[in-house]
Amino acid sequence: MISNGRIADSLAQAGHDVTLLNVETIIPMNAFQTTKYAKIVTLGSISNKSLEFGKNARKGLDTSLYSESGLFDSYTSLSGIIELLKIMMKIPFQEGKETIEKLKAEKFDAIFVEQLFPQGNALGHVLGIDVHFMISSCPMQEHLTSLFGIPNPTGWVPSIGKLAITDKMAFFERAQNELEHHLLDA
User: Fold this and answer.
1) Beta pairing, strands 131-135 & 110-114
2) What is the top-level taxon of the source organism (predicted)?
């Protein structure tokens, strides 16, 4: 959200009418300043269930950071993240029906979305916004490279998963990377 806020500020300072939509998920957006010049609209709220789930997911990720990676670690750890994403998608859309209707009336020209959270693209579709700009604050995820037709040669581009490999891979590492890529693209 910080990068989105900076883009929003740049556009607002250039004279554009900018609305930054904060979709509440795991981190309360009022915990840090995202924009100084754009209008801010908040959608959804963070439930205790989301907070607890987010804390547990972060603990699991923190403990796995320095442990030896197994072949299917990314796949098994993704199940928790997928459950969290379900919650993150459901709550804002349920709680924000009135806000969404007000936003539809704005007839926005474009939407900037973050690749890590699917709400942006979903809201762009719901709001009838045809132009989507994707902001990426980390390496491109496999399903997105596939979706947008971006080349992602697994022979030398490491997957975004948990494998401890570089762009100079041995045969077995390339095989692991290929499998990791397909697991994360599913």
Assistant:
1) parallel
2) Eukaryota
